[in-house]
Amino acid sequence: MDNTNLAHPHTMDKTDPRTMDTPIPTHRKAIIGNPNGLFWLYDTTTGFDLTHPATPTSTSTSTGRHTITTTTQPVTISASKSALVIIDMQNFFLSPSLGRPRDSKGLLAQHQLLRFAIPAARKAGIRVVWLNWGLTDEEVVAMPPSTLRAFGFETVRAEDFEAYATIEDKQAAMDSHGVNEGCDKIGDDGDGDGVDTTAKTTPGSGHTQTRPRIYRGLGTDIGPVTLDDGVAVDAGRLLMRDTWNADLTPALRQAYEQGLAANPPDVWIHKNRMSGLWGARSDCTDFLDREGIQTLFFAGVNTDQCVGGSLQDVSLDLSPSFCLFVYLG
Length: 329
Fold this sequence. Notes:
This protein is of the alpha/beta class. It is 20% helix and 19% strand. A 5-stranded mixed sheet has the order 1-2-3-5-4, with no helix packed on it. Strands 14-7-6-15-16 form a 5-stranded parallel sheet. A two-stranded antiparallel sheet has the order 8-9. InterPro entries: Isochorismatase-like_hydrls, Isochorismatase-like_sf.
């Protein structure tokens, strides 16, 4: 075997550029995604660019470029192509009038939104989208059992099951799951429905707070609630549109109404599943497509359910040109 063409490392020609030790440039760039479609840009000096110019080498014409410091690398976004999506910050999930803790993580998230995220979005010119449960009767009928169960359901005595559909006096299921977590620890107040919703004063707090209720399912009547000022209101049907329980908390409702005069103005979008971005299309995806919004900041409750579900669904949907950067309030 002729080995004359196999150069030994120590005998390589040092003048041959193919064998010379050349330093690797430390400033590098990359295209992440399809350069003819959806892509991000990466620069070792400036981080990730999510401003979406027409081509990887063209200058972005979008307005309101902002670079955000993160725990890893900087991210540059275009305000005109971005939205802060606030999910489910509604009375049903947050109000102490329904037994929610006054020091809950949800109300802490509300404080952070009002103090930091919403003012920052307004200042930057980023659209604020309020994505909330808001059901119609038709949507309740079409709701899958897996979603219905999470919001409670009703039972009848076994011997009456054949007439289930016609029985009006059903009892709330003592199913310690979803919104009824801990229902097995709630006592009976003697009215026959197995639920104690009487007002109790928390020792040392001075606050009168309604004990947790047992919910009978989406679209069922919650009944009256007493607000902090002592006024009683009808909470309405569970998470149906235009009800008190499906409304934003008073502080966030005020922020939303102020945002209607912002530039760009706030938007309220109803959703009918845990995720607000599920399926081939939704009211929210239609809006984002129409407005050319490609970068989303997420906040709201609960992170592991409606917020996380919306994030997962939109990141898996490859047809719209949505890119994601996440803020979890």
